[in-house]
Q: What sequence folds into this?
């Protein structure tokens, strides 16, 4: 009996190790073999009790004009991506079902549909930061966008519907470095 | 053994009430009892230490060391998990005592949460909080059975309650269905504990925590209309009747959370039901099938337990609290005949329950239960003070009557206690 219990205990340990390991594998695979997209955004600063401080990214890419009439506009939608002339991500099409389309797609949550415009939330809207930098990130980016024409974007790798937010940049400078410089200046 | 007890013992010896042999036996008994104490203390401090260090790890992780490379952060993410697993394996294989098992299980459970959190943080995995809690609960749930850890049960109950509240409370939130099997998962462990260690501290704590969790969570399964009150009444009826099972009833009231929470909950809900608006609204509301089904589940469960306690002859005297949910259920089903009689009958029911509590209080010589009954009647009168058109004189007389009732009932109980003390003294003198 004790041997069986010991075996079960070690199986449980393996499962406990497998869950985070599988999370890491999926993210690393997307980062290495996925396609990179830049999503224009603006950060704000809330807190998670376990994972700490993060900035929420409000993406400019949050709606798409479709010619379809949907009865149910809630739930998940497949957002097919392409790149605009400036090199930023844009929407090719949005669908309730998986399409036979070669473009990369991400799964987003649809909010509502108004005059055939689907409004959605992209899932990769959390970027965890050092607890001393998250609020400064919000303020510094707000100041930067008010004072001059600076572009803030999230670099996201996409593969088979999995999207991994790698970093957030302000005019090609990583946000951590941007915030450090802002904190030093103030 | 404390010095006061030692003084009492020598006094009994001097007065020749006990022999020196008996005194020695008593001393030896308390010495052996005290020897077991340090182990219990060691367990408590061990668990507290593990709990604090586990929470400390989570806080340090929450800081987010963004200057650290991703690979190093990932290694650190697994470190607390592996330490927790090694210490659990060591305690289990080496058959270490309760302190080791409980501390290592506590640390491992918290480490699992810390590791998943850190991986989510490193890779900015969005995932909502309730999903994170669900994964955490699922991969730590078997620990209570494998390690026989009591703290694992407590943490499991806290986590599933948190999960259900996180998911279920809020605008247009889904119902936390996973809560039900996760709660049921604890039941076999709890039954074993009741059979083998019914008098232990952990059994006493679980007697409160196990009924408290569904009380907190039940609101997530309600739709916020009239049926919510009925659903809660069914649950409190179920808890009260469970508290009447001999394994709980034969324990002290402070160890029987079922009876206490079942009784307080029943009175609170019934007090709301004494108002006119409830029965008026009940005639208007039309219900969805799912609401009717969800409301009937706690009612049927309570009814099943009531039948069980009768069949097993655990009920020796009539106790109105056991049937209160059933009375309201019948009143609700006959509401289409007119609601006025339901309002009157619910008021009578609450008053009767108050009187019943007073009777139980006098029989058990308990001031707490006696005054609980009086308080029930007082609150009922205060409620009627606001929504009836009674004359001020009548209202005044009612209040004076209840005030006098408080004095009179407490005086009666005091007299009864004095009488029984006097009778005991007379018996002892006669025997001497």
A:
């Amino acid at each position: 009996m004790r041997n069986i219990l010991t075996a079960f205990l070690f199986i449980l340990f393996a499962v406990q190790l497998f869950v985070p390991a599988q999370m890491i594998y999926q993210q690393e695979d997307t980062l290495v073999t996925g396609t990179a997209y830049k999503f224009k955004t603006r950060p704000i600063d809330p807190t998670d009790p376990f994972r700490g401080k993060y900035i929420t990214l409000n993406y400019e890419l949050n709606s798409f004009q479709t010619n379809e009439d949907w009865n149910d506009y809630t739930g998940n939608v497949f957002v097919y991506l392409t790149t605009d002339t400036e090199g930023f991500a844009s929407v090719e099409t949005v669908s309730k079902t998986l399409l036979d389309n070669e473009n990369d797609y991400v799964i987003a949550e649809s909010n509502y549909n108004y005059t055939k415009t689907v409004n959605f939330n992209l899932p990769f809207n959390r970027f965890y930061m050092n607890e001393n930098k998250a609020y400064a990130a919000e303020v510094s980016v707000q100041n930067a966008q008010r004072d001059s024409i600076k572009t803030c974007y999230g670099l996201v790798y996409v593969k088979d519907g999995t999207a991994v937010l790698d970093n957030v940049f302000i005019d090609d400078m990583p946000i951590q470095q941007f915030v450090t410089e802002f904190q030093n200046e103030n | 053994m404390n010095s006061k007890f030692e003084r009492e013992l020598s006094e009994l010896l001097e007065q020749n009430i006990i022999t020196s042999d008996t005194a020695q036996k008593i001393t030896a008994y308390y010495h052996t009892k005290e020897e077991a104490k340090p182990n219990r203390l060691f367990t408590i401090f061990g668990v507290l230490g593990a709990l604090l260090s586990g929470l400390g790890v989570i806080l340090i992780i929450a800081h987010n060391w963004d200057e650290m490379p991703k690979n190093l952060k990932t290694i650190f993410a697994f470190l607390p998990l592996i330490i927790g697993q090694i210490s659990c394996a060591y305690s289990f294989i080496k058959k270490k005592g309760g302190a080791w098992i409980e501390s290592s299980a506590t640390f491992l459970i918290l480490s699992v949460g810390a590791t998943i959190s850190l991986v989510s943080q490193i890779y900015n995995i969005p995932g909502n909080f309730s999903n994170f809690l669900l994964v955490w609960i699922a991969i730590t749930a078997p620990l209570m059975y494998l390690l026989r850890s009591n703290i694992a049960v407590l943490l499991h109950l806290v986590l599933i309650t948190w999960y259900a509240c996180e998911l279920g409370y809020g605008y247009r939130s889904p119902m936390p269905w996973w809560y039900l099997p996760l709660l049921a998962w604890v039941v076999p462990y709890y039954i074993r504990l009741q059979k083998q260690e019914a008098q232990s501290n952990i059994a006493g704590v679980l007697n409160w925590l196990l009924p408290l969790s569904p009380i907190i969570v039940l609101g997530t399964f309600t739709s916020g209309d009239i049926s919510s009150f009925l659903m809660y009444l069914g649950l409190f009826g179920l808890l009260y009747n469970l508290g009447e099972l001999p394994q709980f009833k034969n324990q002290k009231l402070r160890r029987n959370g079922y009876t206490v929470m079942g009784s307080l909950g029943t009175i609170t809900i019934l007090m709301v039901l004494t108002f006119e608006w409830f029965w008026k609204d009940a005639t208007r509301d039309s219900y969805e099938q799912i609401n009717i089904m969800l409301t009937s589940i706690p009612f049927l469960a309570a009814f099943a337990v009531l039948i069980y306690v009768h069949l097993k002859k655990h009920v020796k005297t009539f106790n109105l609290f056991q049937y209160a949910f059933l009375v309201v259920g019948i009143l609700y089903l006959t509401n289409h005949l007119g609601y006025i009689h339901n309002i009157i009958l619910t008021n009578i029911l609450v008053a009767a329950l108050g009187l019943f509590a007073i009777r139980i209080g006098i029989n058990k010589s308990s001031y707490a239960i006696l005054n609980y009954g009086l308080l029930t009647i007082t609150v009922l009168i205060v409620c009627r003070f606001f929504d009836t058109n009674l004359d001020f004189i009548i209202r005044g007389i009612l209040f004076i009557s209840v005030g006098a009732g408080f004095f009179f009932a407490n005086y009666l109980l005091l007299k009864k206690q004095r009488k029984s003390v006097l009778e005991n003294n007379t018996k002892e003198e006669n025997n001497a």
Notes: The mean pLDDT of chain B is 85. The first helix of chain B runs from residue 3 to 14.
